[in-house]
Specification:
SusD-like_N, globular, Serine Threonine Protein Phosphatase 5, Tetratricopeptide repeat, 4% strand, TPR-like_helical_dom_sf, 50% helix, signal, 499 residues, mainly alpha, two-stranded antiparallel sheet
């Protein structure tokens, strides 16, 4: 990693030794949070940083941390990964699409904790204006903008995984604030996400004046990236294009390519020119992936068919063509190690050591924006223009045609190809399930075959028929509400497939 430790990570370390530790525990203690903590702008800054810190690890006992959930929710039900010999029964059930309400990976607790940290900043930070005359309206707006943006991102994860969810917008800061909540419809949650992001956009800077901070904290461009993704999910394609163009036209981002080492720039060093927003793990705060992906303790590995079926193996040319996103970037082909988080070089020869497990988690990068725009304009009957954007992605990766070529005259053909290109580009970045589901559910599940085809590849043959039957029930595409939540919140109703 870069020698310069980011501002976010420095503040995380400060928080761990500061008085706001009680606040981060999220154990309501009447009066403490409201009366004693919210006095100065420094405390507001620390509270905002606590939001980011909550994404790096679980703050709730045995509950699974957010990043591990982001990976598993986005990849475990797809053909991209296979369980290793140390995979636990709950993980195996995800693979087999047999998730039950007792499955620990359906526990959304850590996501709602992050949401509560956001709610607390939004609710209590404005009161500091009257207590600290060095705290400006601009600084307050930025703090609220960051909280609104992260809260929106968390709700977007929840909607895509659970559909209807409780929409909690006020802070839990005392015992009296803990009240049962019913679910809100996914449409209403998505509408609120859009409204919050539009509110946050003018509050946030386009830059903090430091590259690492620009990538580790949300900026105005992060808002645009999330909005483009939300609009794509909502099938609002003109709005998606508008948000993508704000990023493209800024000229502040570009694809890593040319003579640059894609693996080193994007995944080993991190915070590249392509990055829009990524979580800043470092030597003091490691990511959870090392033991998950290491061959001797493996819970997850790359699927064996990826090189041949996704990235391509050239058996024609004397000097084989090679997609730079395959071996040595996404995976190590010899042992199916997920290389993006485990590798130390692009030659696929050297692993990170356990104390170097600080590869960042990338939420959004410029390639997302180009492919989001390509998908949107293709749905707006512009397949030729969509193909030009896809070609930019493929050219930088030295991709080659091994299973058919792009048909820039066909909307349906480009839809298929863009989905395939996203599979290559974002391998193991927690996006595959959402990409396939989004394309499958479009136009009232016009393309359910996308999900059925994926199941045919990802699930063992003896379990496929049962999985096919489940997939044909659209309610099965969303996770169950965790049993503990059902027991403690009597207003919750279990999701339809699991009743």
């Amino acid at each position: 990693m870069k020698n310069l430790v980011t501002y976010v990570c420095l503040l995380v370390l400060m928080i761990s030794a500061s008085s706001c530790k009680k606040w981060l525990d999220l154990k309501p203690q009447d009066g403490i949070v409201r009366e004693n903590f919210w006095q100065t702008k420094e405390q507001v800054d620390a509270a905002v940083t606590g939001i980011y810190a909550s994404l790096l690890t679980s703050t709730s006992g045995s509950a699974i941390g957010p990043v591990e959930l982001f990976f598993l929710w986005g990849e475990a039900r797809t053909e991209m990964i296979t369980p290793g010999f140390q995979a636990n029964p709950d993980e195996i059930d995800f693979v087999n699409m047999n998730v039950q309400p007792t499955n620990r990976y359906s526990n959304w607790r850590t996501i709602y904790q992050t949401i509560n940290y956001c709610n607390t900043v939004i609710e209590l930070a404005p009161g500091v204006l009257a207590k600290d005359n060095t705290f400006t309206q601009e600084q307050l707006n930025r703090a609220v903008g960051e909280a609104l943006t992260i809260r929106s991102l968390m709700y977007f994860y929840l909607v895509r995984n659970f559909r209807d969810v409780p929409l909690k917008l006020d802070a839990t800061i005392s015992d009296e604030d803990i009240t049962p909540m019913s679910k809100s419809s996914s449409d209403s949650v998505l509408s609120h996400i859009v409204a919050d992001l539009k509110r946050a956009e003018p509050y946030l800077p386009t830059t903090y004046g430091n590259i690492n901070i620009d990538k580790g904290r949300v900026t105005r461009y992060t808002v645009n990236a999330i909005l483009s993704d939300v609009y794509l999910w909502m099938e609002k394609y003109n709005e998606c294009v508008t948000e993508c163009d704000k990023i493209v036209n800024s000229n502040n981002f570009g694809l890593i390519g040319g003579g640059q080492d894609i693996f080193k720039e994007l995944y080993y060093d991190g915070n590249s020119n392509e990055s829009i927003f990524e979580l800043q793990f470092d030597a003091q705060k490691l990511n959870p992936f090392y033991n998950m992906f290491l061959s001797s303790t493996r819970r997850w590995g790359a699927s064996s068919q990826l090189m041949e079926q996704v990235f391509g193996v050239d058996v024609v040319n004397t000097v084989p063509l090679e997609d730079l996103r395959g071996n040595g970037t996404s995976l190590r082909a010899t042992d199916l190690t997920i290389w993006k988080y485990m590798g130390a070089n692009s030659s696929a020869t050297t692993l990170r050591s356990s104390d170097q497990s600080f590869a960042h988690w990338i939420f959004y990068r410029y390639a997302d924006i180009l492919l989001n725009k390509a998908e949107a304009i293709n749905q707006l009957d512009q397949p030729l223009e969509a193909s030009r954007l896809v070609k930019m992605i493929r050219d930088r990766a030295h991709a080659f045609d091994f299973n058919g070529t792009m048909d820039s005259t066909s909307k349906s053909g480009m839809e298929d190809f863009i989905l395939q290109e996203r599979q290559r580009e974002f391998a193991f970045e927690g996006k595959r399930w959402y990409d396939v589901l989004r394309n499958a559910k479009r136009n009232n599940y016009q393309n359910l075959g996308y999900l059925l085809n994926m199941v045919a590849t990802s699930i063992p043959a003896d379990r496929q028929q049962a999985a096919f039957n489940k997939v044909r029930d659209y309610n099965s595409h969303y996770l169950p509400i965790y049993l503990y939540e059902m027991q403690t919140n009597k207003l919750l109703v279990q999701n339809p497939f699991y009743k």
